[in-house]
Amino acid sequence: MRVVIVGAGAVGRAIAENLEDGHDVVVVDREEDVVEELTYELDVLAIAGDGTEISTLERAGVDEADIVIACTDSDETNVVICGASKTASDAFTIARVRRRTLLETWKGSEGAFGVDFMVCTDLLTAEAIFRITGLPGARDVDSFAGGLVRMAEFEIDEESAVAGQTVEEADRYDSLTFAAVFRDDEMFVATGETVMCAGDRVVVIGSPESVSHFAGEISETESGGSKEVVIVGASEIGFQAAREFEEHGHRPRLIEQDPVRAREVAEKLPNTLVLESDATDVDFLAAEHVDEADILIAALDSDEKNLLEALLAHRVGVDRTVAVIENVEYATLFETVGVDVVINPREETAEEIVRFTRTDNTEKVVMLEHDRAEVIEIEVGPNSKLVGRTIADATADLPDGVVIGAISRRGKLITPRGTTSVQLGDHIVVFVDAAVLDQVVDLI
Q: What predicted TM-score, i.e. pTM, was given to this entire model?
């Protein structure tokens, strides 16, 4: 597949890195030094130029492209790139935008702007924040098969019910599959003998009820019920996160220092208490009982401020902290010093876009541990190596690093076991080591 990516910022680079091994990738960027850097670092064709110009797109081979991905830092530029691409090719066009209003305009006008698919970075991030904070102890959460299947990643602490147990000993949950264990820099595909130790990150796949049950047993935080949510920073992500909580019946508090922005978001968020103050003021935090919050979300305009706010929240007694980061290289540092959940908007965006480069049967893609592994949903087609075979038989033909976590069959969840047969049309949710991803996708 030929993929043209316009914009070599963090999103464009993340997509290019993910696709370079299995696709013919062309990256276009205005900056000569960025193009030179990409030429040496990635197995892609890097071109310097303005992606809004037909001549640049022609040099990138847009007439032969299957997909054009516009992911510069400008919403308007990305829309123009898609429109220009449509005049020169039949490529599927994807525009990355930050403004939700632009997304809503596009949705209301089918085929508008020459954009086939539009992804809103800030909205995706807000949705991810809501999903993760809704499950005690989770580091990552996503749904598959129309909500029938849930995937979640948890960190195991010393007090967790499964700490020190093997997967076989811990396998007492209905409709739940243990997929993998991440330990420091190592990854283990889960088997019955795999031991889960304190500090490990464990990936499970199953029914929402079973995943919630598992979360409740390994976390000290109570699941369910109303949560006290504090959001620091009325950035677009902070604003969208507050809207997401409102839409699900919560009444969050939002702290914003800028009086103009605070007044603006207060008018748009009827069920959010907007507080105009400096969230690093300890006296203010005490006066507003922020220490009693279940969750604090740091969504300020810099990674350093979000780290400071998350650490301060822990110090005053907040149960759980979430920090938004722009630089994914900071993720490990944030987690090491005690931030519970780190969310990178660019990773969320890349994850949403990359699924279009998989086979036609791929329904969803979720990247884990900064793209060390993926959980994918695939509809089983007639050429799949799994059709008509049991899981035990079929997985013998698959490389190491694969776990079939769940099967959706005509709206019914099936927990896969060795004797389970895979049928044509099944939707399977699979954990895959990134090193064997292309091979696995071709087989299934």
A: 0.88
